[in-house]
Amino acid sequence: MKLRNADAKAKYEYELVVLDDACTPNVAVQVATKMSADKEIIAAATHYCSSTAIATVDVYHKFGLPVVVWGAVLPDITYRNKYPEVHRVNGTMINQNDANAELISKIGYKTVAVIHDTTDYGKGHNQYFSAALAKLGGKIVGTFGVTADQQDFTAELTQIKALNPEVIYFGGLTPIGVRIRSQMDKLGIKAVFDGTSGIVSDAYIQGLGPLAEGTLAFREGAPTEKLPGGKFFMENYTAQKYDNPPEAYGAFAFAAMAMILDTIEKVGPDRKKVIEELGNVKDRDTIVGKVTFDDHGQNTVPVITKYVIQDGKFVEWDDSEYASGKRKLPGQK
Is-same-fold flag (2-91+227-302; 94-220+305-324)? Predict the structure, then answer.
């Protein structure tokens, strides 16, 4: 937004309205309704949390507000309905879990215990990972749903320890992931901790320190520095002197807002025209790569990156010492 307002060629001056969905569905519906009912708001870049993104799609459709989702991965956000208002620049958890099951099978793991949070996000990851693993001949030895605010996982982890899986797959976000991985250590569980995009954050590593080593995780898109516009994004982000580095989906949020602003520049500040124009996006160059929206508003060209935590950093699996064989994950052949 700042870059666009500083551009002398821009036709319009833009005002940013920031509303927090608190990663809570009922709060999200309230703020989405407030935003959608304000006719001065032309479009929105929305949602990291899948549970809030899916809770709000009906609101955007009802009020005719065009949105571009930049981080939430539940497939139903774009595919449950065929709402012309809803678009998404990132991929879905289907792509992510196919890549996840493929990697752990390739490493040689056969048995997996699943822990997922009981939001739509966690349940979706459980569904798509379990299906992907089954196709490859892997076995789910136990599945455990946990609440997003749960603190103690002794009961679930004690049962899992008795099942002795090679991998514990976790479908959820960083705060619970940190607690589970920490409590695994206290109970002497040596299984590989295998997470989703929900734990690809500096906070996961900071929360665990050395215990984060060897964690697997998967995310849509290439690492920021390898994105087509990654250098441009990082230079401009750094110039703003924010307190924290960008999180995993920062570049996608930038791409979503840039697409909205480009569209308004082309067709004017009119919701209906913006919706129509976004419906025609094909091979659009963005900082995260080419974007093409299908008939449900879903970007059809997602890339999935496989990560392992090595020496306190998320490292691409193929570039890691675990992939080369120099280091070994627990039970890695």
Answer: yes
Give the pLDDT confidence score for residue 170 in this predicted structure: 98
Residue 302 has pLDDT above 70, yes or no: no
Domain layout of the chain by residue ranges = 2-91+227-302, 94-220+305-324
pLDDT digits (tens, 9 = 90+) for 166-201: 999 999 999 999 999 999 999 999 999 999 999 999
> How many CA atoms are closer than 13 Å to the CA of 318, on its beta-carbon side?
6
The continuous run of DSSP H or E covering 276 comes out as helix 271-278
> Which has the closest alpha carbon to 23: 93, 111, 121?
121
Reported CATH class of domain 2-91+227-302: alpha beta
Q: Alpha-carbon distance 322 to 56, whole Å? A: 41
Query: Are the C-beta atoms of 211 and 235 separated by less than 8 Å?
Result: no
pLDDT tens track for 241-282:
999 989 889 999 999 999 999 999 999 999 999 999 999 999
Detail the DSSP E strand segments found in the chain. Answer: 44-46, 67-69, 86-88, 111-117, 139-146, 167-171, 192-195, 216-220, 284-286, 289-291, 304-310, 313-316
- ∠ CA 88-196-238, rounded to 5°: 65
Rounded to whole angstroms, what are the CA distances from 174 to 17, 152, 213?
A: 27, 15, 15
Report the DSSP beta bridge partners of residue 28. none
Q: Tell me which CATH code domain 94-220+305-324 carries.
A: 3.40.50.2300
Percent of the chain whose pLDDT exceeds 70: 99
DSSP letter, residue 88 = E
pTM: 0.82
Cβ neighbourhood burial of 147 (10 Å; 0-12, 13-18, 19+):
exposed
Task: Name the DSSP class of 205.
Answer: H
